[in-house]
Amino acid sequence: MEQLLSLLIGVLVAASVYLMLARNLLRFLFGLILLSNAANLTIFVAGRLTPGAPSIVPDGVDAPIDVVANALPQALVLTAIVIGFGLFAFALILAFRAYQSLGTLNTDEMRVAEPKEQ
Amino acid sequence: MDTSTPTRWITPAGLIPVAIAGSLFVWFAQMIPVIAAGDTLRFLWEWVPSLGVNFSFYIDGLSLTFALLITGIGALVMLYSARYLAGHVHQARFSLFLTSFMLSMIGLVLSDNLLILFVFWELTTITSYLLIGFNHDTLKARRSALQALMMTGVGGLALLAGIILIGTTAGTFEMSQINQMPGVLTQSVMYLPILMLVLAGAFTKSAQMPFHFWLPNAMAAPTPVSAYLHSATMVKAGIYLLARTHPSLSGTDVWLWTLTIAGAVTMVFASIMALRQTDLKLALAYTTLMALGALTLLLGNESGYTITAAATFLIVHSLYKAALFLVVGIMDAQTGTRDADKLFGMGKAMPITAIAAGIAALSMAGFPPFLGFIGKELKYAGAIAVASEPIIVAGAFLIASALMVAIAGIVSFRPFWSKSGTPIAGVKEAPWPMLVGPVVLASMGAFFGIFPDVLANSLVNPTVAAIIGNAEPAKELKLWAGVNLPLFLSIATFMLGFTLYYYKIQIRTALIRMTTAAPSFDNGWDTLMAGIASGSKALTRMIQTGVLRQYMFVTFATALVAMGATLFIRTTGIPSVGWPDIELWDWLVFLLVLLGAGLTVVTNSRITAIAGLGVVGIGMAMIFILFSAPDVAITQLLVETLVVVLFAAAALKLPELDKERLGARPLDALIALGFGVVTTIIVMKVTAGPIDRELTTFFETASWPEAFGQNIVNVILVDFRALDTFGEIAVVLIAAISIFALLKSKPEEDKP
Fold first, then answer.
1. Is A50 in the B-facing interface, judged by CB distances under 8 Å?
2. Contact at CB, B600 and A15, closer than 8 angstroms
3. pTM (global) more than 0.95
4. I need a labelling partner for B424 at 20 to 30 A (CA). Which of B43, B221, B260, B666 fits?
């Protein structure tokens, strides 16, 4: 299963890179979301996959008896999902305000901060 | 800088530097007996031993001679400055700069560790920059300061590279140890790069052709600075470096010829340029260049005569040149001009200055019984003994020395005693603090001339021993060495010198006509600077296009090449792909995510794209559920819902996506595809390898007994890694505040 998910990560990364190279800022944002999904999945897969055994300590013992899923990547991915959401929300509003001010979503035309061409 | 009105000059700012320099001089002077007896002293404090960087200081004849010159002349110059700059608004700043320079210079000549030497080398560059630019309200001073900084700074970088090469070749940065390993550098394959880099540092610092032009410009500094830094001490740092590395770098043809040619060309060029000047200070500046050229030339050799000549001339020159600079400073302060064509008949009004100037000038011109005579005789004896071309070298010395005679007359005889111009009326003798320096320095030239043995035994012989590394004993310093070739050369020098002095006006006119037509290094400098500025501007415009897409493209392409190349070089093959344990559910989820991602890429509709993203997000959540991560799956679902809601809300106010045909950007597609493939291979390789579950095991066993939680993931988040979670909350909060601020601001306000 790791191989299949590796392939899926590759697909997500390829899609996100292609979208982030686009002129349109909305497509860039789509790419950003896909990229953060791909990153989360990478961390998750790197911790190996264990079906059907959540990492929970059963009642009455000090530690899980059987092999359970790797808890550490799960915790990291949880944090990453939330931070990725914060990043996305901020980027979205930034793009929205840029459109309000500049009247375009085409990044080639967003040159307010650039020096005037001679 | 009018010294005629009595000013309060006894101030802390003026006199503290004198006290520092004076006491250091005394401290160094009491080491003379030890060093003269042939011993050396070494102090060491380890700084970064693992890198071979130590605060190590080494005192032998060479470094002690320099230290005495630096502190001795320093004390006199600082006393002079205390009066010269009395009442100046920035006198305290000046004193600070000058004292810092002195301490850096002492550090430079005492350092044994080459890296520490480099640090002090750069410190002298920086303090010199501050001192040349002391009158920072004039454009000329700022330009000259920057020029000196750039020239010596570039040389300093070359020197650093050379030092690192020396360190890696010899295995140590301690110069005293490297000098004990014969041939360790000269027989290494890195010899030529080392030599070129070290010479680049030495030649820029000591203003050898073609790096000479910053030195005359440095005369924009106040006169005491010119006397101290740009004549007696800092410019000799390059000479010091050549002398210090002499035992381990000299003895090859490259060393011999590079130093001989650079030195001879600089020497002759500078003496001729000196005759061209009407500003007395500039004339002296060019004679300093001449002296630096002579020292470089002499250090190219290894024979006892030439090195003795170098060591003696080093001291002679510092004594008379500092004295003459200070005299010119006095003339400037008392009359307001340094123009050779305006200063006449001051001898009666300022007898002490005139006598001090006369003695110093006689030493400079090389008349007996002054030390300059001995220095000149030794130079001729050394020239005859050089390994390269004795006749040409002796000829160069003859021209340069004859020109020195003429310059000595122009600077020290003409302004005081010549009757060829109108005497300046109402000149007064300078106040005593300004007279002490010239008088003491000039008398020392006379004293050592009459008693050369004192100097020879105390400083010259140990210096020579340090430079040649005991190869050949120092030659004796004598006033009368018998009737020999050097004596005839001396007589020829005087005759030629007098002739030049007699025809000085005609020669100057001719020289001015010639040199104004020729291209100047100084203008070349301006062109170079302008070229660098426009070149960097063009480069910036090329790299910084201001187009986001290009930045992204370069970033992704670079990352792709770096990762791909590392994969290709460091690993072999792609791990075998087997699909044994894949169930139907897995395939379904895979296809779902694939569909969502594909939809997002190909569609030209905003809503379809958002739906595609939602599908990907739900697919992700399903993967988390399938592989035992219920908490992650819940969070993913929640966040995914929020993303879609937010996007949908914002999209209502945003324009439609532009129509983009699939495959319209083949190059971008190629990069994206490459990135995907490389990522897949990396993740496959990672998951095929072993995994270290040490941390996970810790969390599993500690979760219940220590944190009283059964859900291990939750315990990690809120207990073991609580600070991470706190940071995460902070990030979300900051994003929320920023979003709030963005939405509150009015679009009209940020119209350009």
1. yes
2. yes
3. no
4. B221
